Batch of 3 targets.
Target 1
Amino acid sequence: MNVFTQEFLNCDNKKIVNEIKTKGFFKFENALTQDFINNIIDDVKNADLSLNKNNIAGVYFTHGNQFFLTHMLAASKNFYNYCTNLKVINFCKEIFGNLFRLKALRYYENFGGQHMQWHTDNRRYDRDKGETHTTAPGIIFLAYLSDVEDGEFQYIEKSHIWSGENTHHDYTVDYVEQNFKKDVVGFKGKKGTILIYNSWGVHRAKPTNNKNFVRKTLFFQVEKDTSQSEPILLNAEFLNNLNDDVKMFLGFGKKATNDVYPNTDIYTMPLNKKTFKIFYKWILSRLVLYIPGFLRKKIRKIYSIPSNK
């Protein structure tokens, strides 16, 4: 199964690097094959939501406006094939030289009603120091797994050039409106679109009040600094192309000093259709223990409640 379309594979990495250096970003539609997209979506569905499950699963963040599956390298062989693809490794060599490291990765979904602040990603969440600034060059791969006609990714063109003068990472809507409105570029696109951008650039997801909106996205960030990253959980079964470049890229033997993003708990989880169904079945499974045996079996069958719960 091919990850990238031949059209994207034929795109010269030097061209991509040049656009990122000058504008801060590069966009390519129809970069991912439909088979790859379908398989990634299946992997996410199989991982599902984390509620007392002894496996790799997803979480909700910002009180339900985002869903994350952070540990994609433990949950999806397809994602492993994607981020360690030779096209990606060679591109990283073109932009960073011979040293670089995967800093962060995730699948996430943005829902309607979210209002993301303008920000940069040249920061880290150190376990000991909290949020800190980094001067290391970095790039981010963003891939749409659904058609995006609303709530799209936005980037302030050439902001990677001047943002490094600041040690703060967040910018207000008013500040951007007053100073950089004409430089804001929106990236609507079909599923399979890839955006590659400089992590120093100021960006956000465009706010939307469409309650039915869902943007499904793959994300991974690479930096020249190999001394730090978020902890990476990796399924050893996936390592079919292990070589020195991949070991370096994944940070084999290196410390992971950053906190996992996002930081979630039960209080960031919403009471939506999915979580209500889980809680409802859990409550029913407790109550059914007090029902006579012949009714208990019928109820378990109707609501698909395992007999050992």
Note: Residues 74 and 234 are 4 Å apart (CA to CA).
Target 2
Amino acid sequence: MKKKVCMIVPSFSAKGGITSVVNGYPNSQLTENYNVRFIETYCDGNIIRKVSKAMRAYFKFIYTALFWKPDLVHIHTSFGRSFYRKALIIEMSSLAKIPVINHVHGADFNEFYRRKSKRKKKNIEKIYNKCIRTIALSEEWKKNLAEIVPEQTIRVVENYGVLQEDLIKEKITKPNNKLILFLGFICERKGCFDIPAIVDQVCRKIPDARFILGGSGEIEKVKQKLSAKYKDNVEFPGWVRNEQKKQYLREADVFLLPSYNEGMPMAILDAMGCGLPIVSTDVGGIPKIVRQGINGYLYKPGDSKSMACAIIEYLTDDEKRLKAGRESVDVIRKSYSLQQNIDKLERVYTEVERLRSDKLLQKKSI
């Protein structure tokens, strides 16, 4: 009989990186090998919709814990509100003696933990330590999370990229559109306030270069920073999904993510899976997937001049751009596929099952 897993996720239609990760799990090897029940705790929309979604999720989880009796609970959390929203489920799982895996996707660790008061730190530690295992997205994040939970309880499971074979073939012959693509929340943490300076420097050299910033957030603040001369070179289509997202990835020549904090960004993995070279920053797990000078270039956050120079290099050298794109595909194919992600998850599940069995045996012997 398959083991039962209750997976706590945001809505499968919500914006954000966690949704991009969990969207690969239904109808995959994971759901073939385990009986997985998904409970959505978050949705986009106004506060009434969000609270209503969370309350329904809590009642659904109570019913699931009491009557379906999962063997483990796998919770996808971020920092801030996401953590506090999932904390109640962690508490309820602990009361029901169901082991919890805390899969942490957050990026701003300083704001979430290090800058908090002693009392708030204690509260975070208390909740995190009720989880039998913590999943980090990279070795760097494992070190950060070891400030909260014992390092031996942390396992690294990197995010994955999906290879878009049709787009990869097109990249070989497609014309240079001089298109730079950003996808994600448009905010300071993602480095979006540095993009206007990058636009200026790139467009001075390549006047017909285009930037597409696909996402929602502080769009007006970015627009205000754009120079009048090049504001028409930048488009803001809003949050893009599905075919629209695929079309932008098809047309793009370079993917840009000038972030200040990251875990293992799905946006970069998605772009690499479509054969794009990457220009980004050396934060979080990004240096693990973007190899300097091979499938992209990485710089310190805020170094807009260097990022602009890298973009110019790719847009003016087709051979280098296409070679870097092929290297991106190779990295995904060899090390960051959905299959490899699920294999690592299943190893964590097996470990938790074994720990639970050992505890039950100990209780019987007593």
Note: The first strand starts at residue 4 and ends at 9.
Target 3
Amino acid sequence: MNKIILAVVIAACLGTGFIAGRSQIAAPAPQEKPAERKVLYWYDPMVPDQRFDKPGKSPFMDMQLVPRYADEGQNDAGVAVSARQQQNLGMVTARVEKRPLGSAFSAFATVATDERGIQTIPAPADGVVEKLYVRAPQQWVKKGEPLAQLWIPQWTSAQQEYLAVRQLGDRELTLSARDRLALQFMPEGVIRSVERSGKPQTRLTLRAERAGYVVKLDVREGAQVARTQSLLELASLDPVWLVVDYPQSEARSLAPGSDIIATSASWPAEQFHGRVSELLPQLETATRTLRARIVLANPQQKLKPGMFLTVTQPQNEQQQPVIAMPEEALIETGSASRVLLATGEGHFQAVNVVTGRTSQGWTEVLSGLREGDRVVTSGQFLIDSEASLKSALPSPAAEKPAQAWQSTGVVKAITADSVTLAHQPVPALNWGAMTMDFVLKTPQPAIKPGDRVTFSFTLDDENGAVIERLTPQPEEKP
């Protein structure tokens, strides 16, 4: 009896386990529902620049609009680099920021004579140079120092006439005779000497009105000179001119009135301050440089014509901030300037930029970047050639090829870079049979209008439908 009860219990347990096992096997495992892809916009592949916010039929062609998903084309123009690869490559990024950018203008200048201060010493009347106190050009003279002594015999008759009229005591006649002496370029000091001595004064000593040096000496002792003839020229050393040569790329660095600082190897601990007087209009053809003229104070006359100085601009604390990036982030390719932009975690993209001036390790960015962008400042040597980023930097995943579609059609027209096809429907794109233009990557001289062809194409946001392969269909045998 006990054995029968035990057998029933075992059978019941086995039956329960069998049923539970069948129920576990029969119950399918729950499947995760795939996440829906986010659509950014819809577009017509033939007019990729036009975007639509909902699906439908294209207003340009007889075809359905194509969706652009958020996960498509992400970082297409860049490259993905893992954190470990970034560490191995020594990649460092820095932030693009707004900051005042001090001027980095620096150029060489030559000291020249201020020609606006050159004084010409003429002969007041016809005469003879009796004595010359200045013997050679570049001779330094002090203020009031004698330069030359002239004998002017033609003054004798006019002075004698003045003395005779003066003895008559007629005031008006005397003043008239005195004015005639002044009209003959007779200095006031000579006329007074005539009045004091009562005798004609035919010798005149010319003196320097200010300190300077002789720029030009045109006469010698014993030479006969004519009225208004130039005898010599005097120039001052305070102020002096600085003539600066600077490249065309720095054309906007200087303007009339700009302050400058000049330094000289002769006086290393001293700075000379001046201001741009004018920008010379003519470009130097030999050196392809622009020139500017600077007026520089030289009270102690330390600067001499012909000396070389280094010219810079003072730091302007009120300078407006500009968008700037670290100088080492810039990659010069010869045809363009670009940087490696960090577009996300581990993703980088080459961006062409237009730069301005560089100062203190920072370069002004005129276009191509915005404040807050991060650029690679170290490790970007791998893309300093014209190679693309994807071939220059290692990528953990291979680039996904663009999807291509196939169809057949008849060539209606063909040029070197495009072909017009009357093609059959493309069900994968919801395209019906239509006639449309395709972009040709390479010319197809063997294809002519009227040919029946088989072709494959891809869709590109920039160019639209692009032919990847175009081959003629073989003729059907009867």
Note: The domain at 115-235 is CATH 2.40.50.100 (OB fold (Dihydrolipoamide Acetyltransferase, E2P)).
